[in-house]
Amino acid sequence: MPASSESALAGSRPLGIYLDALWSVRPRLTRLDSADDRPRPILSCAGARPVLHLPPAGALLTRARAAHAAAHLAYGGEPQPRARLKPVQRVLLETLEDARVEWRAMQELPGLRTLWAPFHGAGPDDGNGVDALLLRLAHALFDPAHEDGHAWIAKVRRMFFSADGRLALDTPERLRDAASRLGNDLGQMRLNFNAAGWRVEPAYRDDNHHLWIADDSLPPSATPLEREDADSHGSGDDSNAVTADRPPPQATGGADHGEGGATALWSEAPLRTLRYPEWDRLIGRLRPDWCTVIESRPLNVDGEALRMRLLSALRRLPPGRLRAAGRPGSGRARDGEVLHTDALIETGIALRTGTRPPTRLYRAARPDDGGRDLLLLIDASASTAQPCADRRPLLEHLRDAALLATHELERIGHSARVWAFASDTRHRVRVQHLKDVREDALDARVCARAAGLRSHGSTRIGAALRHAVAHPTGDRPLILLLTDGEPHDIDVHDPRYLPEDLKQAVREARRRGTEVRCLHVGTARQAFALRHAFDPGRCVTTNPAHLVQQVLAGLQSG
């Protein structure tokens, strides 16, 4: 594994204390900076001290990832050779080993079930391909009370658990034999496994490379990590950031269908270029690295008129419209420097009685800390150039509502971002940053960017949504899509293809702990494909006159 500089992991000190309290394990914690759109944690055990590389994520996902990796350190065995195992058999062994260490961890500390359970939601609706069956299997082994109904999954469960509910696959030899036989079963079912596109699921589980004896014949990892032989007395607080972005692809051109010319649409310098999979309903699987997302910012124009209009609209908003985030005066916080004694006692009791442990373990340094990580994703496709009743383009209404809502929500403790997207075939899905975290929505620079936003191109929502889900900046992420139509792009002629991809992208987001909602501007009939993609009650139709109120309601409800 290639060596590189280290990156600091935010909150590594309290996370290290947490792992030490669980099983007295003390891995070195570092941040994993990767160009991968769906990075997984990497647990390295080659050096004198284990190193856990964690991608940036919200606090709950990071804690779930760290606890799972620590379970491997507490209950795992020696690395195994890859020899004589096919790729699908190796993945099956990894899935069984993940379930085994978690089962043992939850036997000792039942409260861990509440930490990992939100990431398990797979069922028959996810399909019957190999990837879907493996995800459904992970759920079935995690929760013995869950009924899946698939005969192969029922067989695995009978092999994994004995009749009295105890663990049957309790040795490396039994695990390996079971993985070999179950892989042969999948072959008999004529199911193909795409090893190159496989990603460990659920998202809190690490990539499992530590389960295998190093093989020098394998190609080196494309993800740079810090030197594994390094050590320190801390928990990964030292830092020198390192990133690894893929080079920009040679994107195909496409005609512009909105305002401005093609030169203006794609002239801003990209921040980075990333590739994402896309669901193909005809083959029932994800096509890996299929869509290219290009991050950028709109070209700055004079935003003073926009800023004045937003300030005027802000004064017209009704008072008492928002509830504050958090509970002032509780005396506890999710993060901090000083642990709360009562919270530690309650956590110890909860972990041993199988009840939900408290999430606030520190003495509060401020009155509230219950905010969410909010992202408003604006559809900036060509159709949003159509004028509304006040003769202003719909895009202006979407943009203004997003900025006003984020300004108000940040005022009460949430963090918020505003992005816009449009596409020109799968090779060019442009995601433009109007406002990022720690920027005021009414700041002159934000307004200059927002005023430069133009309608153009098509509406490849799935790719933009996967990009948004892959880059959370805080706890309890929530994405609100603002759009006027269903998914569409000029290189797709199957009317069901992109709506089914959006449905799959929403499902993937839910597995990763990200809530996705949709606010559709138009008629209920036009929103049919969107309602099909989202969970019940998560897609609401409105009109431009009520946009701000609906955005605030959509981001504060639930």
UniProtKB/TrEMBL annotation:
InterPro entries: NorD/CobT (IPR051928), VWF_A (IPR002035), vWFA_dom_sf (IPR036465). Signal peptide: none annotated. Residues 373-522 form the VWFA domain. Residues 215-262 are annotated as: Disordered. SMART domains: VWA (SM00327). SUPFAM superfamilies: vWA-like. Residues 225-236 have a biased composition (Basic and acidic residues). PANTHER family: NORD PROTEIN. This is von Willebrand factor type A domain-containing protein. It comes from Methyloversatilis universalis (strain ATCC BAA-1314 / DSM 25237 / JCM 13912 / CCUG 52030 / FAM5).
